[in-house]
Write a structure and sequence with these properties.
By secondary structure, this protein is α/β, with parallel strands linked by helices. It has three domains: about 25-120 and about 200-240 and about 255-470, Alpha-Beta Barrel (TIM Barrel), CATH 3.20.20; about 130-185, Oligo-1,6-glucosidase, Domain 2 (Oligo-1,6-glucosidase, domain 2, Alpha-Beta Complex), CATH 3.90.400; about 490-600, Golgi alpha-mannosidase II (Immunoglobulin-like, Sandwich). The relative contact order is 0.11. Bound molecules: 2-acetamido-2-deoxy-beta-D-glucopyranose (NAG) (7 copies) and calcium ion (2 copies). One 2-acetamido-2-deoxy-beta-D-glucopyranose binds near residues 327, 366 and 367. InterPro entries: GH, GH13_cat_dom, O16G_dom_2.
Length: about 600
């Protein structure tokens, strides 16, 4: 196949006039999830740090993302790698110090980048001073956590947990504390005691922590694990789920009617939103509140708000992670996308995320032949796009030996089963170059905290930077479209399928001469020639003026008919077109598609 290398991005700017929009910053941009341990190590201890993010800020600017979302960097004994926080207002020494954080905020804002933090409201670390005082029943901390008496004592006079509740991490959710003589609840790791959200003092503490970071300059939060915030106060046993794939000590073996998705928890989230609104008015900056909730679609939608209460700006849409699998048909993919769009409350803002520090990477879930297609969808569907570090260069999961396993979920599963549970494979250091340690750490540094993927000699940023056909170049072209095109920012969405294997969506503006976007995805293992004349906005007369695509067979300036569009195996093509319906001048172009730019 002939490869035409063109100055794609330069030409692209000519085609597009920058969109003039008064939408909030988080609507038109891509948020980039940084896993700070794995981004860049500046002090040669083998672990990424805040200054490592600071030195790479220009990278985000050139990539075209507008905001960073940081996994927790707070003081922590690291029993759950920072999601167990022992001081919500301090930076852990692993990552640096408070001055480094201030530098990060300032340097972000100098570049017009926003900084969003992960916030973990469900629990603290068992080494938090609140918990230590709660054990001693020192007021006001006595009721800061969920304490319960033993149900009874067993034959050897050992305390029996108050009920059958299980931890998400497996085993009883209750841990006995000798000193207090009671059990505490931990829905996650034993080092993560659940806070008591029936206690107004706890809620106020957490709100003050949000205020603290907003005063320091951050632009918003992602609240994680929120479905677990509240528990039923009767502490009854949960019923069995009767799902035979789970053993009796696995979380999935119970039906979580008393520990998850409780009706009362949503008003806590709405209260956090009030803080965001209060600070937004006070600080005069536009702020963002997201929640991550693994819940049914119906429950997820409640985080947007209910009746007269406003909730998060959006709950993170996990549909492309949890429902979209390698092998999903075009019809099911359409349904997965439509499902979110139609479930949203009126005028709510959508979003798409395809990876996180808890999930296998896109390139590993779908294969590297299809990951670009998934990235294209997440960037061009309506709403905010959230990307996980490394997706832009197509990083894959890394095989990690038992000896090198760090994630408590993996460690707890033991050497036989750890690969099924460990999240380490998707958390390995960013692959900057083909240098020692992939440029993550200096050559004389200690070994990185997790091994570098062996493919780093080929898969790295330096190798992709000057290659206009690379995943990196495509990613950049997509962020430019988000920034510059009204059709991507606010255009309508229509989804179509052609046969079993072709999924198509358009983003179009009504009554406008501006460019519209059409994305065609081939889920098949074979090349397909599809009739796209059914796509209404195209049928009414479309001239395609630009396209991005890997392994496309089109050449510059080639005309083609919407009756037979050729899409390579597992490929995905992005076309820009002007609908002739609104423009008499374009009417003669009816049914003629001119591809004037190509990437491959
Ligand atoms: C009593 O409980 C303890 C702690 O859970 C356990 O190790 C022990 O085996 C139990 N004894 C009996 C007789 O069940
Ligand atoms: C939570 O705090 C409230 C208010 O202080 C208190 O009444 C309640 O008993 C506490 N709940 C638990 C399970 O400790
Ligand atoms: C599991 O089976 C029991 C006994 O048949 C039944 O009572 C219970 O409702 C079932 N649980 C679920 C979640 O269906
Ligand atoms: C995805 O599915 C295709 C076709 O079934 C298969 O060949 C490929 O190995 C799969 N890739 C992954 C990463 O599972
Ligand atoms: C492009 O085609 C080549 C050769 O058929 C194949 O190896 C490669 O995986 C394709 N790339 C993508 C992204 O589909
Ligand atoms: C690994 O998982 C299997 C199947 O769930 C289980 O039977 C086995 O006991 C586990 N092994 C260890 C060492 O935990
Ligand atoms: C995506 C995310 O933030 N996941 C975290 C949610 O919280 C649990 C427990 O605190 C962590 O283990 C996850 O990594
Ligand atoms: Ca470091
Ligand atoms: Ca809880």
């Amino acid at each position: 196949m002939r490869i035409i290398v063109g100055a794609v991005l330069a030409a692209f700017v000519l085609v597009l006039a920058a969109a003039q929009s008064d939408l909030e910053w988080w609507k038109t941009t891509t948020l980039y999830q940084v896993y700070p341990r794995s981004f860049r190590d500046t002090d040669a201890d083998g672990t990424g740090d805040l200054l490592g993010i600071v030195v790479k800020l220009d990278y985000f600017v050139s990539l075209g993302v507008g905001g960073l979302l940081l996994a927790p960097v707070f003081k922590s004994p690291m029993k759950d790698l920072g999601y167990d926080i022992s001081d919500f207002e301090k930076i852990d020494y692993t990552f640096g110090n408070e001055d480094d954080f201030d530098t990060l905020v300032m340097e972000c804002h100098t570049r017009d980048l926003k900084l969003v933090l992960d916030f973990v409201p469900n629990h603290s670390s068992d080494e938090h001073r609140w918990f230590e005082k709660s054990i001693e029943r020192k007021n006001p901390y006595t009721d800061y956590y969920i304490w319960q008496d033993p149900k009874s004592l067993n034959e050897t006079a050992e305390p029996i947990p108050p009920n059958n509740w299980l931890s998400v991490y497996g085993g009883s959710a209750w841990e006995f504390n000798e000193e207090r003589g009671q059990f505490y609840l931990h829905q996650f790791h034993v080092g993560q005691p659940d806070l008591n959200y029936s206690n107004p003092l706890v809620i106020e503490e957490m709100k003050n922590i949000l205020r603290y970071w907003l005063d320091k300059g951050v632009d918003g939060f992602r609240l994680v694990n929120v479905p677990h915030l509240m528990e039923d106060q009767n502490f009854l046993d949960e019923p069995f789920s009767n799902d035979s794939q789970f053993s009796p000590d696995e979380w999935g073996s119970l039906s979580h009617i008393y520990t998850k998705d409780l009706d009362e928890l949503y008003s806590i989230i709405y209260g956090f939103r009030d803080v965001i609104d209060e600070k937004q008015a006070e600080l005069g900056r536009s702020l963002l509140l997201m929640v991550e909730a693994q819940a049914s679609l119906e429950n997820t939608m409640k985080y947007y708000g209910q009746e007269d209460r406003t909730g998060a700006h959006f709950p993170i849409n996990l549909n492309l992670i949890t429902h979209f699998k390698n092998g999903t048909t075009a019809k099911d993919l359409k349904e997965i996308i439509d499902m979110w769009q139609s479930a949203m409350p009126t005028s709510a803002w959508p979003n798409w995320m395809i990876g996180s520090n808890d999930r296998p990477r896109v390139a590993s879930r779908f294969g590297r032949d299809f990951s670009t297609a998934v990235v294209i969808m997440s960037q061009l569907l309506p709403g905010t796009a959230i990307t996980y570090y490394g997706e832009e260069i197509d990083m894959e999961d890394t095989w990690i030996s038992w000896k090198n396993t760090v994630d408590p979920l993996g460690c707890d599963a033991g050497p036989e089963n750890y690969t099924e549970f460990s999240r380490d494979p998707s958390r390995t250091p960013f692959q900057w170059s083909d240098a020692e340690f992939a440029g993550f750490s200096s050559p004389e540094s200690r070994k990185p905290w997790l091994p570098i993927n062996e493919n780093y000699k080929e898969v790295n940023l330096a190798a992709q930077k000057d290659d206009p056909n690379s995943p990196y170049a495509i990613f950049k072209a997509l962020t430019a479209m988000r920034k510059n095109m009204n059709a991507v920012q606010t255009g309508h969405l229509e989804t179509f399928t052609v046969g079993e294997k072709i999924f198509v969506f358009t983003r179009y503006l009504q009554n406008s001469n501006e460019k519209n976007v059409m994305v065609v995805v081939n889920l098949d293992q074979d090349d397909v020639t599809a009739d796209l004349s059914r796509v209404p906005t195209l049928k009414s007369g479309g001239m395609i003026t630009y396209h991005i695509g890997v392994n496309s067979s089109y050449t510059s300036g080639q005309d083609l008919s919407p009756y037979s569009v050729h899409i390579p195996a597992r490929g995905s093509l992005v076309f820009l077109y002007t609908s002739a319906a609104n423009s008499a001048a374009l009417a003669p172009m009816l049914l003629t598609i001119s591809v004037i730019l190509r990437l491959l």
